[in-house]
Amino acid sequence: MGVAGPPGPVMDRDEVDRALARLGAEHEAIETSLFALQDHAGRRLLEGAELTGTTRERWAETERSITLLWTYFDAYADALRAVRELRARRRWPSAQDLAELTERLRGESITVADAANGGPPASLTGPARMSERLSLDTLVTRMNQLYARSLDMVVTADAVWSALPARIDLLSAELQRTRSLAHSVGVRPGEHPSGDDLERITRTLTALRAEVISDPLAFWVPAPGSSAPGGGRPDTERYDREARALDEVRREIDAVLTVRQDAETRLLKLRDVLSRADRTLAEARTARGEVLAKIAATEVPAVSGPPTVLQEELARASEYRRHAQWHRLSPLLEALEEKAEDELLRARESLTAVTAPLAVRAELRGRLDAYKAKVARHGLAEDPLLVERYDAARRMLWSAPCDLRVAESAVLRYQQAAAELLAPRVPPQGGRGEHRGNT
């Protein structure tokens, strides 16, 4: 939809013909645009919808604008037809004809009913205007402005309706499938948080769809700095938030389904881990009695019994599985698996702690025998001092109860004597004899 050139002096015949040709092209373009607006799917939807809020107010304004558009267009078409008839009277128009043609083409020659939406507002202090006179240029400018505002409203509403309701319907269908699956595994409102979340998402999506249908302009984010009709995007923040919430629920349901599929395997593994922990604690208690009988002057930590609470929780997990209460079994199994591993680790640490003195005694025995074998390879096994210190250390290590501190001192004395005998012998200064250090 174009805009005519500025008014000027009296036009000649060629200027008149060119102006008429241009105005005829504008008339066709305007008519095409108006019919396209009339047939726009968004406009038809707006006419049949029960609107609320911002959209209701904007659509009432837009309907008045569209009505005024057709009024202006009819006046424009009538004026153009009158100018064409005037021009068609003579092939060579007279000066008076040219003056009249110029006035009709450039002057305020068109009378239209006054409307606050389309033209300048009436004076607040003067008398109300029933009509106003406009030039073809001004009339085209008015139509352009009205058309742009009307098209923007229609395109915006149509864009929201084309985007959000379909997406909400798809998400609602997915929500129904998720609710059915959740119900099958016992995830129900009032019994599981995810069941409550599904109810809330259902209510939110239902309300959201109703709001989008009745007030689509409330869900539109205009593009900054854009003046084109429909410049912007649908506001999907609330939809996106519920879609993310549904994804979280689906992950929770998947976890429950996983529990249902491998519950027996996980329960068997739990029983095995707790049984190993019990056996390890029993071994630690036995080992503690042995240590107390064989090792003297040693602090041996006490060994606690197996925690009965884990066995009670394991029995409760088996009960949940038996009654297909998967939504309760899922978190319980996760907690039990962690506790069972911790219990097995605690049992192993307890066994290590109570058997530490036996490990120390075994290490001292091994060290003593290793040094004996070493001195034997050097032909020193029969050295009286070594024999004496070896026998003393061996009696301490192989007697019960064994005093580890005294036994370790005896092994160290044997090591020291062996080290002195095995050290390289240095001849005394000024002589060739051998020297043996005092023991």
Structure description:
With 439 residues, the chain is mainly alpha-helical. It contains 11 helices and 6 strands. It has a two-stranded antiparallel sheet with strand order 1-2. It has a two-stranded antiparallel sheet with strand order 3-4. The chain has a two-stranded parallel sheet with strand order 5-6.
Give the topology, please.
Elements: H1 13-39, H2 41-48, H3 53-87, H4 95-106, E1 110-113, E2 131-134, H5 136-184, H6 193-214, E3 220-222, E4 232-234, H7 237-294, E5 295-296, H8 308-322, H9 326-377, H10 384-397, E6 402-403, H11 404-422
Parallel strand pairs: 5-6
Antiparallel strand pairs: 1-2, 3-4
Helix pairs in contact: 1-3, 1-4, 1-5, 2-5, 3-4, 3-5, 5-6, 5-7, 6-7, 7-8, 7-9, 8-9, 9-10, 9-11, 10-11
Compact description:
The chain is mainly alpha-helical. The chain has eleven helices and six strands. Helix 1 packs parallel to helix 4 (95-106), helix 1 (13-39) runs parallel beside helix 5 (136-184) and helix 9 (326-377) packs antiparallel against helix 10.
The rounded Rg comes to: 50 Å
Portion in strands: under 5%
Q: Residue share in helices?
A: over 70%
For the termini, the CA-CA separation is 120 Å
